[in-house]
Design a protein that fits this description.
The complex is a heterodimer. Chain A is built from 17 helices and 24 strands. Chain A is of the alpha/beta class. In chain A, strands 1, 2, 3, 4, 5, 19, 20, 21 and 22 form a nine-stranded mixed β-sheet that branches. Chain B is mostly beta strands. Chain B has a domain of 151 residues. Classes of the chains: A alpha/beta, B mainly beta.
Chain lengths: 568, 254
């Protein structure tokens, strides 16, 4: 393979504490190296910043519920689907883009890795087919466990080892990456038309509480020593006054210690925390509790979070939190789709318009940014929009702009119909902090890579790491006074090199790259009881046979497997 | 089949005939030019408002005439295909023959007059969208097919002859006047808006309740109408403490 040298840029690499030093980045055979021969292809990065490829810890980009969004929102593609360029695939959609647009747009923003945040185990084949059809970017997927019947059965009996053995089996057969938990217990209760809105609401039939499910899965995750921690979407998402529940469930991580060989320090990743930082007891007195939530996150090093920033767009919400989507539909009266996935989970999809003329939407926007601005450790707080729930991922550059520029935040506040009410219900107007490029690199590169246990592959520019290098047209020494230029620079990278291949130049896609599907192979001694339970359940309960359940190798033809050996 | 989304006074204004002939169109995924299908002559105005487009000949296979136009006029001395005046914001379109489906889809303003008959989806919303026709007037002198004014929010649709099924489905505003007969499914899931049927409705929806008999003048026709409200199966917002319904006025038998 060819050699490339990215010359003379301002390098920003938090993994080596490099902040804007002018340096070269050498690439050979898809990896970062110390030096290359004089024949290497030269990329002139003078006057531009150079960062590792971005790492997205949480986005809904592949699988059945994403496709439901595509199918039931043809209007999301109207006038937004230009003809394909020669040699490339057509790009369609806005909030739920086609797989091709997903890959191209992430690459244009210099992203190398994206985590599909909720994979229903029964429909894993579909998830992997879509992942395979998404060009350029590396991807992995988190199977959902928080409402799984096996998990609830074992945890009710306090059987952490059996829970772990089941999880190890399921991650292996679905080619998954880790443990995702969505509204623990609540989605299972939804099958009875109920929900779990506190940590102590018992799940019907299983008689287990969300608190017990969370604690059990935290322990099972560390029992297995997975690269990523338990990844949770808490109960009572999106409701006024939910911040106390959020803090209470974060506290459940206090008794658990990280145990893994991947350099991960947290035991719980709390996702789209914006949706969980709400005060008030109705939409009338709805207010920000970002400070209260972030104060706790700042104190507890065993927790990482991503923001889930509202971007004020028309978007499509989709989540395995079935009861929440039903609730949302009763608020906005638009379309609603609901799916039950036998034994495992559920999902709902509803379009949503975050309108800057609506007070609540303005407050939600402010909360997402406040969380980022109150974060004391940007290496534990990551940029996300819970794509597409709070906004599409192509707004990450806009979120970066808002975080980096008070001027940009004030300009957006000025467009609100209820500006004064939004200011009264939040702290956004009084926060002067402007994040630095170094902090942005922590929130989008080194932080999420470490949180996923992949800091030796992604998120930095040290020799030996994947050669995922973004060059952005921003002068570190002379940043533009116009914040719009920050958004433009991060939206269309000057160059993006993915695995040692130049895939983007001046924001244009040059190639389809060589994407990989990353999955975790958890090796654990055979657990006869769990295998018998699984076999019996497939005979008795499932509508598919156990032989048809595992994902075949041909569905993930370009795997990168992370092996985990669990000691007995 | 030619997708001529550039046949608008907005695209023509300020251009020479040669420049207009060079405007892009599509046949599926193939890029073509207007000049491949039309001879262009005359002199457009400097603005859309001062530009009148006349098409001589049969446009039965020309789609998207007047797409998103804001001002000026288009006259077609014959038939036109689908999407006439789609998403138009202003100006006038006059088709002297028939039109196919999706006439006035997503329309926000302006006037469309069809001398012949129309296909399905007159003044409807784009597939999947909950924001349909917002304003303007569509007048079909002949008959129309199904799905008229779906998700309508405002504006007026007048069908001077018969219509088939699904009128003002999901409507939250606007007015539809059918001067002939309708087979059925009028006002299904309608939240707000007005529907007038001057002929007969063969099958009434069960979600409509007769509340009154009123005298009305509708598009120049005076008469006695049975006043129904509905769709009772749908949610209805309140205004000043009173529930708002869609109104269906059906001309009483003489």
């Amino acid at each position: 393979m060819s050699e490339i040298i990215v010359k003379g840029g301002f390098v920003i690499d938090p993994t080596r504490k490099i902040d804007g030093d002018v340096a070269d980045v050498a690439i050979k055979d898809g990896k970062i190296v110390d030096k290359v021969s004089s024949g290497a292809k030269i990329i002139d990065a003078k006057g531009k910043i150079v960062m590792a490829g971005g790492v997205d810890v949480h986005a809904h980009v592949a699988g059945p519920k994403v496709n439901v969004g595509r199918l039931f929102r043809p209007e999301d593609k109207l006038f937004k689907s230009p003809m394909a360029q020669d040699g490339f695939r057509m790009e369609s959609g806005f909030s739920v883009p086609s797989t091709f647009k997903t890959g191209y747009d992430y690459a244009r923003m210099g992203y190398a890795f994206v985590m599909e945040a909720a994979m229903p185990p029964l429909f894993t084949a579909h998830v992997h087919e879509e992942i395979h059809d998404t060009p350029i970017i590396d991807e992995a997927a988190l199977p959902v466990f928080g409402n799984n019947w096996f998990v609830m059965d074992y945890l009710k009996k306090g059987e952490i080892e059996n829970t772990a053995a089941y999880i190890a089996w399921l991650i292996r057969v679905t080619k998954g990456f880790g443990i995702k938990v969505v509204n623990p217990g609540g989605t299972a209760a939804w099958a009875w038309g109920l929900n779990c809105l506190t940590l102590n609401d018992p799940v019907p039939y299983f008689e287990i509480t969300p608190s017990e499910i969370i604690t059990g899965l935290l322990k099972a995750n560390e029992y297995l020593g997975l690269p990523h921690s338990m990844h949770i979407h808490q109960n009572d998402l999106g409701n006024p006054g939910n911040y106390q529940l959020t803090i209470d469930s974060l506290k459940l991580a206090e008794g658990v210690k990280p145990k893994n060989k991947f350099g991960r320090e947290q035991v719980m990743h709390s996702t789209h925390i914006q949706f969980h930082s709400y005060g008030g007891d109705s939409w009338a007195n709805f207010e920000s509790k970002a400070k209260e939530v972030m104060d706790y996150v700042n104190k507890n090093k065993a927790i990482t979070c991503d923001l889930g920033c509202v971007t004020l767009d028309e978007t499509t919400t989709m989540t395995a939190d079935g009861p929440f989507e039903h609730h949302l539909n009763s608020l906005n009266h638009l379309k609603w789709c609901n799916v039950d996935v036998e034994m495992e989970t559920a999902a709902g999809v509803v379009p949503y318009v975050y309108d800057k003329n609506i007070k609540v939407c303005g407050i939600q926007w402010a909360i997402g940014l406040e969380l980022g601005l109150y974060a004391k450790d940007p290496n534990r707080t990551f940029i996300s929009t819970d794509h597409p729930n709070a906004g599409p991922f192509i707004r990450y550059p806009r979120v970066i702009k808002w975080l980096m520029s008070k001027k940009a935040r004030e300009a957006t506040l000025d467009t609100f119909k209820y500006k004064d009410k939004v200011i009264a219900a939040t702290n956004i107007h009084s926060i002067d902090r402007e994040l630095t490029l170094y902090e942005i690199a922590q929130m989008t590169r080194s932080g999420p890579a470490k949180c996923l246990g992949m800091s030796n592959i992604y998120g930095g520019l040290a020799p030996g790491m994947n050669a995922d290098v973004g060059v952005f047209d921003l002068n570190y020494k002379n940043m533009p006074s116009d914040p719009e230029k920050i958004e433009q620079a991060f939206l269309r990278a000057a160059y993006f090199i993915k695995s040692g291949e130049i895939v983007v130049r001046d924001g244009d896609i040059l190639g389809h790259g060589h994407k990989k599907t990353i999955w975790v192979n958890v090796k654990m001694p055979e657990n006869p009881q769990v295998m018998r339970d699984i076999t019996q359940s497939f005979t008795k309960d499932y509508t598919v046979g156990i032989d048809n359940y595992p994902v075949h190798d041909y569905l993930a033809p370009h795997p990168f497997v992370i092996n985990v050996d669990v000691e007995a | 089949m030619f997708e001529a989304f550039n046949i608008t006074p907005d695209a023509f204004a300020g251009k020479t005939p040669a420049q207009i002939a060079a405007l892009e169109g599509r046949e599926g995924k193939i890029k073509v030019a207007l000049g491949d299908f039309f001879e262009v002559s005359g002199s457009p105005g400097n603005t859309a408002d001062e530009t009148d487009v006349v098409i001589v000949g049969d446009c039965s296979r020309v789609k998207y005439i007047g797409n998103k136009m804001t001002a000026g006029s288009i006259t077609v001395n014959g038939n036109a295909d689908m999407y006439v005046g789609g998403w138009m914001k202003g100006g006038k379109i006059h088709i002297k023959g028939n039109v196919d489906s999706f006439c006035g889809i997503g329309m926000e303003g302006g006037d469309i007059l069809i001398d012949g008959k129309a296909g399905n989806y007159v003044g409807c919303a784009y597939r999947g969208d909950w924001r349909g026709m917002k304003g303007g007037t569509i007048r079909i002198r002949g008959s129309a097919g199904n799905d008229i004014g779906t998700f309508m929010l405002g504006g007026t649709i007048i069908i001077e002859n018969n219509a088939f099924i699904h009128v003002s489905t999901h409507a939250e505003g606007g007015t539809v006047i059918i001067k002939g007969d309708v087979e059925g499914r009028v006002g299904g899931q309608a939240v707000k808006g007005d529907i007038y049927v001057l002929g007969k409705i063969q099958f009434m929806l069960p979600g409509f309740k007769k509340i009154d008999v009123v005298e009305k003048e509708v598009d120049g026709v005076k008469g006695t109408f049975n006043h129904y409200i509905g769709d009772l199966g749908e949610r209805h917002p309140k205004s000043k403490g009173k529930e708002i319904f869609a109104n269906l006025y059906v001309k009483a038998a003489a």
